[in-house]
């Protein structure tokens, strides 16, 4: 604004030359002068046509000729100025080299071209002057002015003019512009209004050409700026300024910042000099380009003045007309009626400037074209559509085009005219992902967004070095702030009642279309300023003056003004759509706006979509489908941004807790509608946020938004539960919070939303799993019972759908539901205490395995009559796994011991030989008999069971009765006493044996109490007796009578026969058993049916479930050299889910993961919160001593010697937890997880396992994929999910995910983590672990649609082992000979005893 201060304006010189001093104009009557000029001009024109030489050769004669031309251009007789224009157009060719052979150009003009044309240029000025008192043919005037302008520009582009001629030519163009553009106009048909569309781009292009040829004096730039300030009521002035400045800005950005972004191309439809102007722009040096950009950017001074009508009323051209004609009204000025449309273009232009600097893709066609049209559509910057009959101007070749949706444009094939146009290659290279601040533009009820077709997500470009907020505000801040604050003045002028008729007239005559345009302009202004501050880097310093003004502007914009609902709604929606990141970028003092944002968010999240559509349609009076879909799309986007804002602030009430709320009004003004009588803390915000989330979930209909709400509610659940636990620990008398009720309501809502929509179902299941596995979120068991019931109902409904509805995706949801039920019964084992729950689980297990339930509408179906037709193999395997867990799940868990036990194998038992059997074609038994004294003379075996769902190792001890029975203890002592009396043992061994047996009995009894939950569901004898009390009493009476009878008989026997009977003694205990035979016989594998099928080779009918349940046994030949290798390969196929998280730490200025490997060597330089986070991932274990998942298939699931497992590992440094030496290990019944900090980035992806990277970034990155090595970025086959963590200054942590981690199978795969979430440290590790788990689980579910599951792979491997190593048996004698005489009990008792002591295992009674 002050760059030309101190330089004189050329205005006085221009005004002096603009006066015509021709004697024909001053001294002779016009009628006489016309009679003099007409023949002479006709003669000259005839010479030109016939190419005859011009007879004038002296300066005196040629000067008189010029006087005639001077008069001719000022004459309003069309025939005269036509001749003058035609002659001058021909004489302009004197500057061309090809005009040497032309005789029509006077020789004296060739000799003194510069001298004469310095005068003749001013003659052309008069051609553009319009005299109101004269009635010339305006159409002819416009045609010849266009002809002259075109020839002038051609001459300029092809000629090297001197500095003086350039100086005069620029003054002439400014004079023409001042004459044509500065006056007010009353209709769009006026000559000046029509001429402006051709004149304005010519002026800009002539100055661009002059920049390339000469150094324009600063005084001339000042004159241009002063004149342009009075031209701003012309739509073409703003339109062409915006277009040219956008091109200059993009070229500066291309040369100064990002060479990969191709600049916009300048194309003008009004002139033919677009390509020439573009060449000039491309040829400018960087310094000259920047100066030119600044000069054109500031040429209009403050363009925001276009929104203030009072500024134009103060201009002399308006004030003089209003003073002269008192009857003249403001509505009579079309130029004033155009101001709202001009103001919209101003705000859009500023928004485009900002977007270009941010590296975003812009739409050059979003500007309103300056030409009027009869049928127009009001739109906004992102192609918002409204009802017809609204006022809009458009270029003649594209009327109404900018408001038509893309699909309409495609069918109508309307050409797209624009002053800016990008080629196809440019568009491909400039496809940058549009951030939230620019994706959506403001809407009013009459300005409705169109539904854009979905496009593939473009590749994000990293723009770390974009300008700072301070730079933006230095450059555009005053303009955009004025645009935002102008709405206060405009609202006041419309709402207040003034005494002057002028003010009343202003209020009355602004029509509804212009009001909607002003609404659009204000909304765009707020969108732009939110975009500027949202672009702030997290550690960026912003001047407090800018922050305070920004907060004040938002405070004004977020207020809802009654009586001005439409504008308030448009501004509030624009703010919400463009401020999704404001609360997570470390803006100082931003929390002062939380209350205002919550007020705005409440309306949109508590309103259902149909009510919103009806309200907007009633205002716009439009009922077409386009409007409805547009409103729906916009409402969904607004709710999405509102949820993101809630996601950013939901942690603040618990983080700041007792910090007092400071409302914005407390610092600026005491508003009449704001009451601050009570002091509130941040903790009170939760009373608004939590119910708001639940209300939003109830009314949400969009799938993506619902999943965002799932994640936000999940975060709120943990925060509330953790806060309540802290309160209970600090104050025992604290009142119960509303947390349990909130959590219960949230779980039921999530379950309902998920089961009602299959697309949401996977996300809902992930959320439920996340909540149920959180030890802090404790809910009443009735809630989980309700969830279990709904999930079972969902599976039942899905599997009973018609065959045409069965798809892979539907089966995936069923598999995921079975897995969720597994997690549910593991985490809430008391659910299995309920008979109804167990019955429902058994029903869906049966339905999944067989394809139908036993209880059908037609009656009860027996298993022997049931056909085996499951929905799919995947569903059947998931149901079997649920059954497996149901039968294995204990009430008391010893997780670590169970995991270690399951990874024992044959090498654990030294000097032992195992016999191998195949059971039912899908299970392998490895059995070894222990010696006689291992179980006090009773049969004992070691059993390794390998099935579809893993491997289990047991020792099985044969007992006639459980050791916990006191009768057994009594009989044992009695037997020992009898043996002692017979002299077979001494008292000392008896006491030792008794003591030893007591110890063993206690241990076994404790183990026996660890029954599975399915066992606990079996009714006890006492419960049955209580149920049949009457029958029991009858039995007791009969028993009493029988006792009396037997006692009387004994007495009579003693009376009649006194001879004592010999005492009965038990036989000696058998010391030789075929323990394997006993086991197979007791479990039905040695039954006659099994032997019959074995001998006759009869194949089972697998379609009948009854035949499938018949036991089948095959003996395997384990003597082959490759047998144990195949067994080990089977053990490497884990049925459980195993996950790996690779952890990285990127410091500031580190751009890729390759730069981060050395950071772990200096942990003291890392953020302490990072060390706290990784320490909570799990237990540090050494890879060589670990028998579970290690992050590498080659080193996982191995057998560890007892000496190694008992060795205490020393403490590890951070650098040693690299996946090769040590890892962080976490495990539950269904999942194993390994976390480590690698020292290198491995390109190998270890099969189909998803790679999950947890990256701590000190510096925020918008594009996480950019931190990958170059080869990974370019790879199309990579499957890498990245979870980024950025610490904020308020000690909270922002989560951001790459695209691969956000969505899988049309659902959010990273719940409980959502992109943009802000969470505290105390739940960060837990959420990260759950996110890794859900990502891997979703990946395995996704892979199972196209490949075999782990269960299928194990089954295939087991089948191949059976086929390869089965022992062909021709008769029963051979089979039992192998079973009995090749018994494994060949080892010495000492070896067996040492084996038993060395391998502590759970003892199961048989």
Automatic annotation (TrEMBL):
Q: Region entry Disordered: which residue ranges?
A: 980-1009
User: Residue limits of the Ral GTPase-activating protein subunit alpha/beta N-terminal domain?
Assistant: 145-257
Q: Which GO terms describe its molecular function?
A: GTPase activator activity
Q: Which residues form a coiled coil?
A: none
Q: List, in alphabetical order, the GO biological process terms annotated in this UniProt record.
A: regulation of small GTPase mediated signal transduction
Q: Biased-composition ranges for Polar residues?
A: 984-994
The Basic and acidic residues compositionally biased stretches are 995-1009
User: What PANTHER family does the entry give?
Assistant: RAL GTPASE-ACTIVATING PROTEIN SUBUNIT BETA
Q: What is this protein called?
A: Ral GTPase-activating protein subunit alpha/beta N-terminal domain-containing protein
């Amino acid at each position: 604004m002050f760059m030309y201060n101190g330089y004189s304006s050329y205005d006085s010189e221009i005004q002096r030359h603009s006066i015509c001093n021709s004697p024909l104009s001053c001294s002779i009557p016009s009628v006489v002068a016309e009679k003099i000029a007409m023949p002479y001009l006709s003669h000259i024109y005839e010479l030109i046509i016939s190419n005859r030489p011009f007879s004038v050769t002296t300066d005196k004669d040629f000067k008189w000729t010029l006087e005639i031309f001077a008069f001719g251009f000022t004459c309003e007789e069309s025939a005269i100025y036509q001749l003058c224009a035609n002659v001058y157009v021909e004489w302009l060719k004197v500057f061309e080299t090809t005009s040497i052979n032309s005789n029509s150009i006077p020789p004296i003009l060739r000799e003194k071209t510069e001298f004469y044309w310095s005068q003749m240029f001013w003659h052309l000025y008069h051609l553009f002057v319009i005299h109101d008192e004269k009635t010339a043919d305006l159409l002819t005037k416009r045609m010849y002015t266009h002809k002259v302008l075109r020839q002038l520009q051609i001459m300029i582009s092809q000629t090297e003019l001197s500095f003086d001629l350039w100086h005069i030519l620029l003054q002439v163009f400014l004079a023409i512009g001042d004459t044509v553009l500065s006056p007010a106009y009353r209709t769009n048909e006026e000559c000046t209004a029509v001429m402006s569309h051709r004149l304005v781009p010519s002026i800009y292009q002539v100055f661009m050409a002059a920049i390339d040829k000469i150094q324009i004096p600063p005084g001339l730039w000042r004159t241009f700026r002063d004149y342009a300030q009075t031209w701003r009521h012309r739509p073409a002035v703003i339109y062409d300024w915006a277009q040219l400045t956008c091109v200059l800005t993009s070229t500066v950005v291309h040369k100064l910042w990002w060479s990969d972004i191709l600049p916009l191309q300048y194309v003008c439809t009004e002139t033919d000099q677009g390509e020439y102007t573009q060449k000039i722009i491309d040829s400018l040096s960087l310094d000259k380009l920047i100066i030119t950009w600044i000069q054109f950017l500031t040429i209009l001074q403050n363009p925001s003045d276009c929104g203030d009508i009072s500024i134009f009323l103060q201009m002399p051209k308006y004030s003089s007309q209003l003073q002269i004609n008192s009857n003249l009204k403001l509505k009579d000025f079309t130029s004033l009626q155009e101001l709202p449309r001009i103001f919209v273009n101003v705000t859009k232009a500023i928004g485009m400037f900002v977007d270009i600097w941010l590296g975003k893709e812009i739409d050059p066609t979003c500007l309103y074209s300056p030409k009027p049209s009869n049928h127009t559509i009001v739109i906004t910057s992102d192609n918002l559509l409204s009802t017809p009959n609204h006022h809009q101007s458009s270029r003649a070749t594209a009327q109404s085009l900018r408001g038509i949706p893309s699909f309409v444009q495609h069918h109508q094939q309307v050409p797209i005219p624009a002053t800016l146009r990008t080629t196809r290659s440019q568009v491909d290279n400039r496809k940058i992902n549009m951030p939230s601040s620019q994706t959506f533009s403001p809407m009013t009820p009459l300005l409705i967004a169109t539904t854009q077709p979905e496009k593939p997500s473009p590749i994000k470009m990293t723009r770390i070095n974009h300008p700072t907020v301070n730079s933006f505000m230095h450059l555009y801040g005053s303009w955009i702030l004025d645009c935002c604050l102008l709405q206060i003045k405009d609202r006041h002028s419309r709402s207040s009642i003034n005494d002057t008729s002028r003010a009343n007239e202003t209020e009355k005559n602004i029509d509804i279309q212009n009001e909607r345009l002003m609404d659009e302009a204000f909304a765009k202004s707020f969108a732009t300023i939110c975009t500027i501050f949202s672009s702030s880097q997290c550690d960026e310093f912003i001047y407090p003056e800018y922050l305070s003004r920004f907060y004040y502007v938002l405070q004004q914009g977020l207020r809802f003004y009654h009586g001005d609902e439409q504008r308030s709604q448009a501004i509030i929606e624009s703010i919400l759509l463009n401020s999704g990141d404001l609360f997570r970028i470390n803006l100082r003092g931003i929390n002062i706006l939380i209350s205002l944002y919550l007020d705005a968010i409440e309306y949109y999240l508590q309103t259902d979509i149909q009510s919103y559509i009806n309200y907007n349609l009633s205002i716009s009076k439009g009922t077409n489908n386009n409007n409805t879909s547009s409103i729906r799309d916009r409402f969904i986007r607004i709710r999405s941004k509102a949820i993101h804002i809630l996601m950013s602030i939901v942690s603040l009430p618990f983080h700041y807790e007792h910090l007092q709320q400071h409302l914005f009004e407390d610092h600026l003004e005491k508003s009449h509608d704001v009451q601050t009588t009570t002091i509130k803390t941040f903790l009170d915000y939760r009373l608004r946020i939590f119910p708001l989330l639940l209300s939003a979930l109830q009314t949400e209909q969009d799938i993506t938004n619902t999943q965002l709400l799932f994640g936000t509610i999940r975060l709120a659940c943990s925060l509330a539960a953790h806060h309540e636990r802290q309160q209970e620990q600090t104050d025992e008398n604290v009142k119960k919070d509303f947390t349990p009720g909130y959590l219960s309501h949230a779980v039921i809502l999530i379950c309902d939303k998920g089961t009602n929509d299959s697309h949401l179902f996977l996300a809902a299941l992930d959320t439920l799993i996340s909540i149920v596995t959180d030890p802090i979120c404790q809910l009443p068991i009735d809630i989980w019972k309700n969830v279990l019931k709904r999930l079972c109902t969902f599976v039942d409904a899905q599997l009973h759908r018609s065959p045409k509805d069965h798809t892979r995706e539907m089966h995936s949801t069923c598999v995921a539901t079975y897995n969720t039920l597994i997690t549910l019964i593991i985490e809430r084992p008391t659910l299995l205490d309920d008979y109804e729950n167990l019955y429902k689980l058994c029903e869906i297990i049966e339905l999944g395995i067989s394809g139908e339930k036993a209880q059908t509408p037609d009656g009860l179906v027996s298993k022997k009559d049931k056909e085996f037709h499951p929905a799919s193999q995947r569903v059947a395997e998931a149901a079997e796994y649920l059954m497996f867990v149901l039968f294995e799940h204990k009430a008391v868990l010893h997780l670590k011991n169970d995991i270690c036990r399951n990874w024992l194998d044959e090498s654990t038992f030294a000097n032992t030989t195992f016999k191998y059997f195949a059971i039912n074609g899908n299970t392998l038994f490895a059995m070894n008999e222990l010696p006689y004294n291992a179980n006090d003379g009773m049969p004992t075996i070691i059993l390794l069971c390998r099935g579809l769902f893993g491997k289990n190792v047991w020792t099985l001890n044969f007992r006639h009765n459980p050791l916990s029975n006191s009768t057994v203890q009594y009989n044992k002592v009695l037997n020992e006493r009898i043996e002692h009396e017979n002299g077979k043992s001494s008292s000392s061994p008896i006491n030792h044996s008794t003591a030893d047996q007591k110890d063993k009995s206690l241990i076994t009894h404790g183990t026996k109490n660890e029954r599975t939950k399915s066992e606990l569901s079996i009714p006890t004898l006492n419960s049955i007796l209580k149920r049949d009390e009457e029958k029991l009493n009858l039995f007791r009476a009969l028993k009493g009578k029988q006792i009396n009878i037997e006692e009387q008989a004994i007495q009579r026997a003693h009376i009649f026969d006194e001879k004592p009977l010999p005492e009965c003694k038990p036989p000696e205990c058998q010391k030789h058993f075929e323990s394997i035979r006993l086991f197979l016989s007791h479990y039905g594998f040695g039954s006659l049916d099994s032997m019959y099928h074995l001998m006759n080779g009869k194949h089972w009918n697998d379609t009948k479930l009854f035949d499938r349940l018949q036991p089948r046994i095959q003996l395997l030949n384990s003597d082959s050299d490759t047998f144990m290798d195949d067994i080990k390969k089977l053990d490497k196929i884990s049925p459980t889910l195993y996950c790996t998280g690779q952890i990285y730490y990127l410091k500031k200025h580190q751009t890729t993961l390759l730069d981060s490997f050395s950071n772990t060597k200096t942990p003291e330089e890392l953020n302490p919160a990072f060390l706290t986070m990784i320490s909570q991932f799990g237990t540090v274990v050494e890879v060589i001593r670990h028998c579970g998942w290690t992050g590498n298939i080659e080193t996982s699931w191995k057998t560890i010697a007892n000496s190694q497992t008992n060795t205490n590992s020393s403490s590890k440094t951070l650098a040693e937890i690299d996946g090769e030496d040590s890892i962080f290990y976490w495990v539950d019944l269904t999942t194993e997880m390994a976390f480590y900090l690698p020292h290198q980035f491995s390109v190998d992806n270890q099969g189909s396992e998803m790679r999950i990277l947890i990256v701590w970034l000190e510096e925020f990155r918008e594009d996480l994929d950019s931190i990958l090595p170059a080869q990974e970025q370019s790879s199309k086959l990579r499957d890498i999910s990245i979870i980024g963590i950025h610490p904020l200054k308020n000690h909270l942590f922002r989560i951001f995910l790459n695209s691969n981690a956000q969505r899988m199978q049309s659902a959010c795969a990273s719940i409980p983590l959502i992109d943009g979430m802000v969470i505290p440290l105390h739940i960060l590790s837990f959420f990260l672990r759950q996110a890794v788990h859900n990502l891997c689980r979703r990946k395995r579910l996704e892979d199972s649609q196209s490949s075999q599951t782990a269960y299928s792979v194990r089954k295939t491997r087991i089948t191949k082992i059976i086929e390869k190593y089965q022992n062909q048996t021709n008769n029963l004698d051979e089979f039992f000979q192998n079973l009995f005489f090749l018994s494994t009990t060949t080892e010495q008792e000492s070896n067996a005893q040492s084996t038993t002591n060395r391998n502590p295992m759970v003892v199961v009674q048989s």
